[in-house]
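Please produce the structure of this protein holding sodium ion.
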Amino acid sequence: MSPEAIALVMFAGMIVLMLTGQRIFAMIGAVAAASALALYGNSAAELPFNAVFKLFSWYALLTLPLFIFMGHMMAKSGIAEDLYRMMHVWCGKLPGGLAMGTIFLMVIISAINGLSVAGLAIGSAIALPEMLRRGYDKVLITGVVQGGSTLGILLPPSVVMVLFSVIARQPVSELWLAGVLPGLMMAAVFAIYVYVRVKLNPSLAPKLSDEELNMPLREKILLLKAGIAPVVIFLLMIGLFVMGYTNLLESSAVGATAATVAAAWKRRLNFKLLVEAAHETMSVTAMFMWIVLGALAFSAVFDGIGAVRAIENIFIHNWELSPWAVIILMQLSFIVMGMFLDDTAMLVIVAPLYIPLVQRLDLGIDHQMAWFGILYTITCQIAYVTPPFGYNLFLMRGMAPKEITLIDIYRSIIPFALMMVLCIVLLMIFPQIATWLPSYFRG
Amino acid sequence: MKSLVQGYIRVMDGLAEWIGRFAMCLIYVMIAVLLFDVFSDKALGKVQNWTLETAQFTLAAFYFLAGPKTLKDEGHVRLDLIYSHLSPRGRAIIDSITIWIVIFYLGVLLWGGISSLHYSWITNQRLPSLWAPSLVPIKVLMNVCIALMILQCIAIFFRDVLRIREGDAR
Amino acid sequence: RAQAPIRWRLQTYAGPSLGEHVIKRQVDAFNAAANGEMEIELYYADQLVPTSELFRALQNGTLDAIQSDEATMAAPVDISVFGGYFPFASRFSPDVGAMFMYYGLDEIWKEAYADIENVTYLSTGAWDPLHIFTVNKPIRSLADLNGLRVFGVPTAGRFLSRYGLIPVTVPWDDVEVALRTGDLDGVAWCGFTEMYAMGWADICKYALANSITGAWFGSYYVNTQSWEKVPPHLQQLYRSTIDQSHYYRLIWYWGGEAKLRVEGEKMELTEIPSQEWAQVVKDAQSFWDEVAQESPRAARVVEIFKKYASDMEKAGYPYR
Ligand code: NA
Ligand code: NA
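Below is the modeled complex.
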């Protein structure tokens, strides 16, 4: 069989096995193990196991449990409730103010945690019930929480970018810097969307009564105190890291500790929370790591049959695609695959094929890999919210208040997924949005 | 027979739970090791050459020890495009077949793991670094965990079979 | 003849950019000359198996051939500490070949690997010298080594720590970032050629001209079963292309290093005063003696190093 044929069989086999609904990590791993044994004989039995030791040289992965821990601690620390109250009072008067305030809340939450789960948990537990009570349109606000929470992986710190940089061999700090402006831009696009929708149809977001927001200015200003803890955590973690005082791993440990201290300060820290945070961290870490393990074995075999060269041949030589066409095709394939696949598995399987190719493309962009990493991260955001397979969808089903139905959830994400695509287009036309900040700091 | 099978499931679940409870604490070990590393480096000016590798070993132990419990608690992601539309009994039927694919993967991992451990044992293999820790302990732990994961998968299989039988009886 | 070609999987310690010079040419030449009778597929560092498992993968047949130093892949022999950068084992790169050809290192190597099941040792050649490169702290005296945080090969790090240098463990891929962020003051991992090739020369401003060793020992190994299945004329071809690779690499590094020292503009050369450096070379002797204690075979290797060094002193110009 030709390498192309083997690659196709492996890929198709993986999709079929995954469609049975069995645990993804093992389906990927099983295809890898079976093809390794078929191609190389019994001597390849160690190949799947060896993936564990490949991970030993990817030390950025060590930050994974720490960021997961931090996100959970932070969500339970009470910081979010204070932030919500601040936002509620300060933004309540604007048209659609609570929804726009929720986007702002998501930006702050995103700046101090690396996944979208914390934002989703906070959004659906705190913001959604408040907005529903005041008659906000449930489809609109469900979309706001779903879309807004995905900013968690675009604004630093970001676990997805850690995984990308590990695989693409790029400095994480560069990617994090590159994510800042696109993240803020996306938040602005969401906010403008909400504003315009509410302006056109005020019934989507009834005004808050004046009594509710009536409070002495002194108290209003005191509410701003809620912002102190996130700013301090952000500076300790991201500031020291970007300035080069701590390395990535150290800053993730500092962040985890800072979130724990914040919980203690808010008097929320107790034995139960410590156990709960550890438990949550363990299950999410195990889920991530076992997928990485299976996918790494898969990509070793894929690499072994020369699939990278095969893909390159097809793109560049057979189809004679221009560099930009290749990039667009890659984004499309990410979006389509992201609908069905877990984003980590997608990254580990596809990245070894795409990344060498992107490195060779001459697009005339400085910090090209960081820019590509941002495009990739946005496709992950899309993947999170699109059916049939999306983390945020799964979680939303579990966490959202009763009156929000599955149909509401599915309908709510359409405009937000489209806005994310719009951001990808903007980043392709104006790569500087992503590359300006890394150039400014790193030259 | 049925009580024997139920006993097996109970023992495996208990074991997975118990090991998982222990593994949870390792996150605090990781944080402590890394904070010590930061403190020793920045405050005392002493570079520690064992902390990074210790954190790596701890992470490996963390997700391997979590293995059986994560299987038991349905902690792994599934593609539920078709799966979510099936009845509980339909899922049990499919799962009782596909779980053997999971067992196959874990079986190859165990096969390779034991072979790799054997090599580390006879050659006294160490990580090529200044600290040069032995790879034997972590490989032993990984193999034990993979074996427990296989046993857990068999418990999952039994549970599915019981579910299918109950469905038939009704 | 419609016989299917023999297919081999060869993995190197090197990544793609370096591999271009240290192995790819050889594999290409071999495949061309084998004329379809045999084909070697080349894999770079960590591609098929992680480097730490390289030797194991060769032994069990996942790989048919490897190219690496013994220290990086922790080869299970009592002489693996000498493969890779061993402080002051050589002054110039031709020293390596000379010690293997005239002083009996080749016999010791063959003997060491004869004990290992299913692995056949073929040949050893010279790679690049080991220098210390620093970001913004020039080294002009031994005292300047004190407190420097340096990423490097373990054996050299162990030796240099007696001068207060702090060997720091960082994964290879993070070295560049760590240099930029100031987490590392420098590297002691390679010579000038690779500093330029890997882009580390863009970050480091200073290069210490004194070398810790003249060249490291890199070797070729094959899986014994795979080797025995190859007909004699292709075995000979493989050996010949290895020699070709040794030759190319020797000249590429020797000439390239000098060229970059003279014409390279990215780093400023500094030197440790010769009296102080003579002390370092002398200190290395006690380090050698420590290592000689580890096994009788190690003692024999150290004996050869000593004999060779003293012979070269006696030979005088141009040898020393
Ligand atoms: Na974030
Ligand atoms: Na999706």
